[in-house]
C-alpha cells in the first residue's frame, strides 16, 4: 500500500499527539500577584543583572512579597529554550536582541507591547516593536584614530586602502554582523535587497581580514595587541573601552547613520505571572533604571522621559538623534538568514 | 554462570544510557530526517534524507569535516608527545609528593576554558610572551601566530592534554618495578627501557587517551572560535551556529550525526591499529622491539634531552596561561584583557567573597558533580570488568553505544533535549542534570577504568584465592587497591568534567539550579570581567590546598603499592 507524505505526517501527528502530554496556548491570565509568587527572568549576566537586582527586584519584592529568580546566559540559549517551551514557558520575562525579539513576537513565543505597561507610553515607536525596548545600543565603526588619515565619516571609508588587512570583521549574522553587512550594502547600493550578491561582493573587496571577531572581549584584545585597527561593534562597549583602556580609538558617526540595535524585554506568551511581568518591565522603563543603564554602561534610553546627566549625553543617543538611527527590515533579513549565512560562511569568513 | 557475567555487569551502564542518552539521541536522529527545519513542527515526520544530501553535495561541509579531522589528529599527536614525559614523571614520582605533583595537570583543568584561551592569546599575540622573549635575542616579532590552525592546535592541546596524561599515567604507574629491574639487569639504559618496555606496556592507556582527546577535540568549539578567529572551522562550530543562531536544527542534527560517525570510525581505527601492537593482550605472541645497535647510542644521548625538552614544553604550556589568570585577577580594568596590567585592585576578590554572587552556583556545581561522579563510578566499574575480563557476543557494539556520548557534540545533545521539552515530561531539574552529567562522564570513566582493569595482575588474585580469600575479600584487598590509580584518575576527570560542563547544562539550567560554569559563561558571553579570573584563582588555590592535604594524609602510593 502506498501512503502519501501528507497522509503519513497526519498519521504520525495523531500518534504523537496522543503520546505527548497536552498543552494549550492559553491567553495570558492576569491574577493579582500574591506573596510567594515567583517571577522568572532570563537576562544577561554582568552589569545588566546587577542593575535589575539593585533597582527592580527590591521594589517588587517589597510590594508583593514575591520572589525573583534569574536564568543567566546569552540570548542564544534563552531563545532556544523559549521556542521549545512556546505556550508553557518557564520564563516570565526574557531579554532578547532586536531581531530575536521581533521574530519571537511573530512566532507567538512572546507578547507584543501593550499599554498595560504604564511606562510604555514613553517608548519611542521603534522601541515598541518586538516587546519593550529597554536599551538602545547602536552599532557603528570603531577605529584606531592614530592610524587614520582622516576621521571616518562614512561606512564607505572602510574601503580606504589604509584599512586593508587591518579590519576585524564581525562574526556571523548577529546584530553586529548584520549591521556591518547591511550598512555597507545601503551605503554603496542604497537598497537592502542588494545584499546578495552585490553587498557581499563589495564586502569581499575588504579581504583579507585581519581576523573575524566574535565578541567585544576578543575584539578589544585584538585592538590592544595591534592585530586589527577597525571593526563594527556596539557603541556603548566601545565607549567604555576607549575611556578605560585605549584612548587611541574612536567611534565613527557616519553620515549614513548608525545601525539601530536594542535590548528588548519580552513577556512570554502563556506566562502565569502577567501582572508581575508587566510591573517588572514597567520598572525597567522607569527613569531611575534608564539613568543607571546610561551611567554604568552607556546604554541609551528607549523612553522620552529619562533624565540623563549632561556629562554623559555626548556618549548616548538622545531624543533628537533617534531618527538618525537606521532600522532594518528584520522580516526581510530573517527570511533570507539561512541563505545569507551560507554565503557568509563560504565567502566572508572562509 | 561466567557467560552471563559480562552482560550482567554491563547492564547498569546500558540501562542508564538508554534512559538518559538514547532519548535525546533519537530526537537528534529524527530531526536530521526532517526535509526542512521548523522549530514548532512535530518531531516525527515522514523521513527525508534532504539534510544529508545537502551536506554531501556541498564541498564546504566536506572541507569543514576534513579540517576538523586533521585538526583533531594533530591535537591527539601533540598531546601524546607532550603528555608522555609528564605522565612518566608523575608515575615515577615518590608517593608522598605525587598528589601535589598532580597539580600541574589538575590546576589547568580547573581553570575556565575561556580564561585559558585568553592565556594562549597572550602567548602567541604580536606583543605576546613568545615575541618578547625572541626579541631579547634580536629575532624579529612574528605577527601571524594567532588566528590560524597552529594557534587552535596549541589551544586545544593545552585544554585536552591533561586527559592524555591521566590515561597514560594510569598505565605507566601500573608497570611493576621488577620489570624495570629486569630490563636494567639486561643492560637497558633508561631511554632504551622506555622505548622497549614502558612504551609498549602503556599502549592501552595511549589508546584510551587518543580516543578521548580526538573525540573531545573534534567536538570542541570554544577554543577553536577564540584562537581560530573564524578563519578555522570545526564541525562543532557549524553545529552550534546552525542549531542556535539560525534555529536550523535539522541541518545541525545531520551535521552532528556525521561528526558522530567520523568519531566512531576514528575510535575503531585507533583501536584496531593499537591492538595490532598489543598482540600479547589477545593471546598472540609478543614481538619485542629490537632496536638496531647503531641507534642505541643516539637514543641514549638524544632521549633524555628530547624528553626534558618535551617535559618543559608541556609544563610551560599547561601552567603559563595560569600566570595570566592570577595577574588578571588583580587587574584594575572593567573588562578582562590579555594586553597588560593596568593597576592593582582587590575588588574582583571582593565580588567573589563578599557579594556572594557565586556561592550558590558553586554549591550547586559541587553537588551535581559529586552525585554524577558517584553514580558514574558505581555503574562504570562493573562495565570495565565486563569489557576487560568477560567477553560476550555483541560486546563491541555495546562499547560503541557506550562511547556515543563522547562522539555526539554536546550542543547536539542540548538540541535533542530541547526538542524533548516540547513533550511534557516532569523530571526534577536536579535529577535531570545529574542524569545528563553521568552521560557525559561515562565514556571517560569506562575507557579509563577498562585500561586500569586490563593492567591488573590476575596472578595476585589467583594467589589470594589459593590462600583462601573469597570473592569479596579478593575484590576489597587485591582488586580495589590495584584499581586505585584508575579510580583516582577517573574521579578527578569525572568530577572536573561535570564541574566544568557548560554546553548541555546551559540548556537545562533553571532559576534555582544554575551551576558555576553556566554563571561564568553568562557573564563571559556578555562581558568578560576579571571576576572570572579571581574565581579561577580561588579554585586553583583551593586545588593546591586540597592536594597538599591529600598528599599529607592519604598516602596514595601505599594504597596501590604492588
UniProtKB/TrEMBL annotation, chain A:
One of its GO terms (cellular component) is outer membrane-bounded periplasmic space. One of its GO terms (molecular function) is thiamine binding. GO terms for biological process: thiamine transport. It holds the Pfam family SBP_bac_6. Keywords: Signal. Residues 1-28 form the signal peptide. It comes from the Bacteria. The keyword NADP does not apply. This is Extracellular solute-binding protein. It comes from Martelella lutilitoris. The lineage of its organism: Bacteria, Pseudomonadati, Pseudomonadota, Alphaproteobacteria, Hyphomicrobiales.
Automatic annotation (TrEMBL), chain B:
Coiled coil: none annotated. It comes from the Bacteria. The chain crosses the membrane at residues 12-33, 69-90, 102-125, 145-169, 249-274, 294-320, 362-387, 399-418, 430-454, 475-499, 534-554. It is found in: Cell membrane. It is a multi-pass membrane protein. Gene3D superfamilies: MetI-like. The keyword Repeat does not apply. Its main location: membrane. One of its GO terms (biological process) is transmembrane transport. The keyword Lipid metabolism does not apply. Pfam families: BPD_transp_1 (PF00528). Keywords: Cell membrane, Membrane, Transmembrane, Transmembrane helix, Transport. One of its GO terms (cellular component) is plasma membrane. Residues 65-270, 362-550 form the ABC transmembrane type-1 domain. Belongs to the binding-protein-dependent transport system permease family. CysTW subfamily. This is ABC transporter permease subunit. It comes from Martelella lutilitoris.
